Amino acid sequence: MENQYTPPKIWTHNDDNGGAWASVNRPISGATHEKTLPIGKHALQLYSMGTPNGQKITIMLEELLALGKNAEYDAHMINIGNGDQFSSGFVALNPNSKIPALVDHASETAEPIFESASILVYLAEKFDALLPKDGAKRIHVFNWLFWLHGSAPYLGGGFGHFYAYAPEKFEYAINRFTMETKRQLDVLDKQLANHEFVAGNELSIADIAIWPWYGNLALGNLYDAKDFLQVHEYSHVQCWAKAMLARTAVQRGSIVNRSWGEPWEQLENRHSAEDIDKVLALKPV
Amino acid sequence: MENQYTPPKIWTHNDDNGGAWASVNRPISGATHEKTLPIGKHALQLYSMGTPNGQKITIMLEELLALGKNAEYDAHMINIGNGDQFSSGFVALNPNSKIPALVDHASETAEPIFESASILVYLAEKFDALLPKDGAKRIHVFNWLFWLHGSAPYLGGGFGHFYAYAPEKFEYAINRFTMETKRQLDVLDKQLANHEFVAGNELSIADIAIWPWYGNLALGNLYDAKDFLQVHEYSHVQCWAKAMLARTAVQRGSIVNRSWGEPWEQLENRHSAEDIDKVLALKPV
C-alpha cells in the first residue's frame, strides 16, 4: 500500500495544504483586515459573488422584480479569491465568512441575513412570493430547499474541489463524490420526471436554490464535468435546467457580481436594472 | 509524485470503492426492495435512526412534549447500515433515501416531510414553538439553522468519513476537512461567547439542529476525535453543549432509534414515554 499516512494525535495547521483555494482556507474564523462595506441607495444591500450560492439571491431578486415587487437592490462584489469575505465589514454581517449576505435597511433592526437559503426564505416572506404559506405545497418547498442546502456541499466542497481544484487528482475522493453527485442528479431527475418545477407545478425558492448548482452542472457550466458525469443522461434535469435558463430573471440574475466568463456575463456591481441591461446588450445575436 | 491517477473521460462505477459505507453508497437513487413501513398509533410517525440527523427530531419532539404540546409520536428504526433506507416504503417518503422522514397523519394530506431541518420547521410551525414568527429573532434562527445544514456535510461527509470511515487515511482529505471542522467550531464558539443559545437568548430549532453534530463532537461523542480536534479549546461550545445535555428532552431524545452504545443509550423503537423511561432507568446512578 502506497499510502502510509497516520494522522497525528493532535492535528496542526500546515499552510501548504489546500490546493487552489489554500490561501482562503483557515482553521479559525474572524476578520483578517479592517474594511467597511459600501452601502448603496436601495433598502436591500447584497454582498455577494456570482458563484452558484450568490446567483441564488440575484435570480430571486430578479424574479421578484419581474413579479412587480419592489425588490430593487444594490449588489456589491465580495471577491472570495481576494479574501474580501474576511474584511471586518463582511464578518460583521456573516461570522462564517461565506457569501452571500444581505441587509434590509427597510427592516426594523437591519439584521444581517446570511446563508443563501436563509436569505431566500426572508425575501419570500417579505414579498409574499415563491414560498406557499401552508399545507402540502409549503412542505414540498422546504423539503427540497433543505435537500439542496445539505446536498450542494457534496457537489461543491466534495466533487468540485477534488475534480477541479485539489492540487492532485485523488482517485478515492473523486470516486466518492462523483458517485454522490450522480446519485443526487438521479434523485432530482426522478422528481422532475413528474413535476414541472422541483417542488411541484409552480416555481418556488426550491428551483431558485437548486438551479445554480444542479442546473448549471447539467448544462455543462460547472467544473467542466459534462462528459465525466454524463449529464445528458438526466433528461428531466436537462429539460428543467433549460426551461429555467429561458427565464429572463435567471439570465439577468446569473451575471451579477461576476468578473469572469464572456463580456456579457460579467457585471461586477449592480445598482440598477440598467446596469444589467448594458451588459446583456453586449451579447452577440 | 506517488499519486499518478488521471480521471477517465467518463466516470464508471466500481463497487470496490467506498470504505465502511461502501455497501450503502450507489450512484443511482430509488428502491432496492419492496417493503412497507410500520405505522403506530400516534399522528406523528417518524422513520429514523439515532445518528445526529435523527437525534435532531427526537430531541425536538421531546422538547415539544416538555412544553406540554401534544407531540406524541412513534419512532421506527430505519437501520441505514442494513439498507432500510432503500425499501420501497421509505423511498416513497424520501426519494433521497436519507433519514429522518416524518408523516403527520393528522394533517390534511399526510405529506411526507424529509430533510431533518424541514421536519424541524414543520414541527415548530405546527406547534408554534422554538421558531419566532417574525423580526430579528426569526432571521437569527434561520441563519443558524441553514448554517448547520450547509456545514454539517463537511463534518459528517467530510471529516467523519475521512478520519473515521474511509478504507485508508488520506492525508490531504483529512487535512482539508479537519481545517474546516475546526473553523466551524470556532465560528460557533464566537457566537456562543455572547449568546446563551446559538440564535440568541432562547432555545430554538437552531440549537436542536446544531447540538447533535457540534455538541456531540465537542463532548467527544463523535468519531473519537476529541484530542485530534482539541475540542476543549472551544470553551463556549463546551459550556453550551453541556447545558444542552443537561436538558431532560435532550437526554430522552438522544437514545431513540439507537442500537449501539451502553444499554441505557439504546431504544430501537419508541411508541410511548414509558419506552424511554425504561431504558433510561438502566443507567447506573
Protein model, in words:
The structure is a homodimer of 285-residue chains. The first copy, chain A, starts with 43 loop residues before the first strand and ends in a 5-residue tail after the last helix. Chain A is 46% helix and 6% strand. A four-stranded mixed sheet of chain A has the order 2-1-3-4, with helices on one face. The first copy, chain A, has two domains: 1-130 and 261-270, Glutaredoxin, CATH 3.40.30; 135-253, Glutathione S-transferase Yfyf (Class Pi), Chain A, domain 2 (Up-down Bundle). Chain A has helices at 52-66, 88-93, 116-127, 135-165, 171-193, 205-218, 226-229, 235-245, 248-254, 273-280; strands at 44-48, 73-77, 101-104, 113-114. Chain A contains ten helices and four strands. The longest helix of chain A has 31 residues, at 135-165. In chain A, 50% of the residues are buried. The model of chain A has no long low-confidence stretch (mean pLDDT 96). In chain A, a hairpin with an 8-residue loop joins strand 3 and strand 4 (113-114). The first copy, chain A, is globular. Chain A is mostly helical and 285 residues long. The interface between A and B is large, with 77 and 77 residues.
Structure in a nutshell:
Chain A is 46% helix and 6% strand.
Give the end-to-end Cα distance of chain A, rounded to a whole number of Å. 56 Å
- The rounded Rg of chain A comes to 19 Å
Oligomeric grouping of the chains: homodimer
Number of domains of chain A: 2
> CATH fold name of the largest domain in chain A, please?
Glutaredoxin
Given as residue ranges, the uncertain stretches of chain A (5+ residues, pLDDT < 50) are: none
- The averaged pLDDT of chain A comes out at 96
